[in-house]
Amino acid sequence: xxxxFSKETYIQRRQQLKQTVGSGLLLFLxxxxxxxxxxxxxxxxxxxxxxxxxxxxxxxxxxxxxxxxNDKEIIFGNELTIDxxxxxxxxxxxxxxCELVGITHTLPLAQLAAxxxxxxxxxxTIHFLPPYRGAHQVWLQExxxxxxxxxxxxxxxxxxxxxVDMRNHKTEEEIVEIEKAIDVSVDMHLAAYRTARxxxxxxxxxxxxxxxxxxxxxxxxxxxxxxxxxxxxHNHHYLxxxxxxxxxxxxAGSESxxxxxxxxxxxxxxxxxxxxxxxxxxxxxxxxxxxxxxTLAPGVPFREAHINSAIRLCEGMKExxxxxxxxxxxxxxxxxxIFFPCGLGHMMGLDVHDMExxxxxxxGYAEGTKKSTQFGFKSLRLARPLEPGFVxxxxxxxxxxxxxxxxxxxxxxxxxxxxYDRLDAWKDFSGLRNELNYLITSDGARLLGHKKKPMSIEExxxxxNA
Length: 466
Fold this sequence. Notes:
alpha+beta, five-stranded mixed β-sheet, 16 helices
């Protein structure tokens, strides 16, 4: 295995996991290679993040068990054949790799099924995580006899909760890696500020952004969003040509060689400066950002930061003349979501949306609380009280989505708060957002990263002219 941290780190993590779950057998399915259009033309390989967290390294075709009842930790996998070596080069053996993370017991992959069946025959509880790949669904069906349609519901809640609690609380060595990823992410965004000009394509800016990352040996933590249509929250179309007067929105982050993520967003004028109307909305957005950040502290629910950001948004929209009524009430009942339909932020770590495959309910919500089903609030991935060690994003936005405006107006949604008669003139605005990454400390919140991403209008203009 390619050890990311010291052997002792992985030994301690597995020991803590065993103590928390208490009994049974913990099953980890590593990721395999996946072909894009045929087997040998594969997507970029990425190991499962929970496998990485407890066993380290990038190596396809592995599985692992932590047999708590019998005090065994085993990696299952096959050694490379001569054909593998011809194409991939000489590599250490599985045993040699495993020793780097404190695992001394390895077995061929074909023996995993027999080991699991033997455990079942003894009445051991087999703990497994909800699968997010079709191949894992098939594998689990073969190993446990559970229909893929039932696997998510039958995944081990104690196993999920134990991993979530550990991975939600970042250690100092993890923070170091996250900040490296954030610093490279800042370099990506600075490239966009320098490149976004009238006449170039979104694809051209994207190429500059990703070159700033690849040139440092980093990968993308998610597909880059580089667009003049910021009202579309996740826009992966790159063929538009930037025009004077457009707002260019970049949402991009890097993943470090140790697989920790950064996640930043920026909004900038394609021209040398914002228009008066754009500057007004941009400054309102910065005010909503400050309202959120000023709320961050240990013990404070992240939902409160989301609401405070929404209140400031409603206050500003009332000043502009696009909303009316009590801003606090408008925020709390969800009228704000016509301009801000997504959540304020999300956990971040080995996954850019950390552990989303394990369930947002467990990761972002406290025991006994449920996600809202209401438009806007249902997209809030993180709502729980904040704790020291939590790493997350803060990303308020302001969007003018013509289809959403028309839909809500036709349904007469929140007519006591939204001035629909004035919104037609704003349908061509698009949208904007900024995003930074924070760590909760014992007494507050710390902005992560050693490099500064432009935020104020003055900083944006300076970055464009650098």
